[in-house]
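ping. complex inputs:
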Amino acid sequence: MRRFTLIAVPYAWLLVLFLVPFVIVFKISLSDTALAIPPYTPTLDFSSGWAGIRAFFAGLDFENFTFLTTDDLYWKAYLSSLQIAAISTVLTLLVGYPIAYAMAQSPDEWRPTLMMLVILPFWTSFLIRVYAWMGILSNEGFLNQFLIWTGVISEPLTILNTNTAVYIGIVYTYLPFMILPIYAALEKLDSSLLEAAEDLGCSRLTAFWLVTVPLSKQGIIAGCFLVFIPALGEFVIPSLLGGSQTLMIGKVLFEEFFSNRDWPVASAVAVILLLILIIPIVLFQRNEQKQREAEE
Amino acid sequence: MRRFTWFNATSLSFGLAFLYLPMLILVIYSFNESKLVTVWAGFSTKWYGELFQNEAFLDAAWVTVKVAVMSSTIASILGTMAAYVLVRGGRFNGRTLFSGMIYAPLVMPEVITGLSLLLLFIGIGLDRGVLTIVLAHTTFSMCYVSVVVSSRLVSFDRSLEEAALDLGCSPFEAFRLVTLPIIAPAVISGWLLAFTLSLDDLVIASFTAGPSATTLPIKIFSAVRLGVSPEINALSTIMISIVTVGVITASLMSKRATVRQQREERAAERAAD
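pong. complex structure:
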């Protein structure tokens, strides 16, 4: 009896507040927009019995999905989200790998401190960390002032409200997610392997490419997915740092819902985003599985 | 004995500078006299004064803390139950679906979670306010709690529980007297994680909050959309300081707890010999 309660309570909670909402999103994505409350049709009407239920299913169609393929805005937004997420993931890897590498190489007594310094920003509000860059990247911002002061440039660079600012924002906020799995992989690396490679005539750089990088592959893959997956649906960064030409699907969905009040189209946008995300999520799960099996 | 090489020291300093300089600049400019955030006009704490007179911000802060305390507490209970079921529950019908529902919210884009919950609340006719935000936050943060707690449950010695059962404890007593004290640090870190996630959340709260309840991130977001403001810098500085003090205290405490536990374990081993 106790076991049943233990299972049933969290199970029911997740069913009602996680699974059922998705079914509703899916259902509304097949509905039509209407000038009513709620602003879509059909709504399920149990009072008229079977006829009501039949009428309900007859009213559902894939019109919104067809609409998404005909309007440029949407598929361009999906493509540009994929592109922005992919470029930022690569940039995060380039910034994060040397840091993770240096952490793994550092003296033992330094490691807990370094670890905490990398994790600490993660506990700080995401919104504030993105906001901090607004003051740095704007035309009169800190970065431009600094560059003009040092004489590198004479005219301020326009960075805020461009895709460059979005890349910087994603790299900055997701950097800990890249560093930690790579660090975890590098920390386990047996340094005698590198010594062996050097004894056998490898230069340090070749040894790094042939030994260190392949052995940290799992960490690199995990880190890349941990950055790519949330970056794809990102809303805060493109809306604060990006410009009007920055198209990201999270922002489109938010605006479709709140500004245009087009619930069926917003739901259809969400369903497709979910379908796109399934691929990297499944690949990520498989990578984690492999890692667990390797450890056992 | 390993030492920092020139390359490693450089990449660490650049990395940490990249992580901390933006926040440092934000903190420094919160003490700026000028309304123009980019021009330094002397030291002043006047923005903090104005912040504490801004009723709207104070109300939103109060709502945010209430929501965070409630949702993280419920999430810790549900998340611990879920973790226990996943690690110790054995087989039952629908286990795959259950573990799927635990892991899915971790990778779900916030816009989708928020949209789907809003549609549910409208569908069942629940007025949006504190309650709906608490329900939404509990749902995603219980999954984080259960991941943290299950990693602790997996690693601990199951024979301790079995010993308690052999000595006549009921399963519930064994949980309360043996399991719970051992997993307590994980439950506490899960609670802290849930609390921070709730404090930070903008997107899901935007979907599930109604006109009667606005959280601090929603207020901050609508203010900073118009540009940088010194009041928001002051608010950010306060939030950054709270988090810094909190994280450092928590890590010192957990370090002390580990040391004490190791000492007790050694003492117990000696006594057993």
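Residues 57-227 of chain B form a domain with the MetI-like fold fold (CATH 1.10.3720.10).
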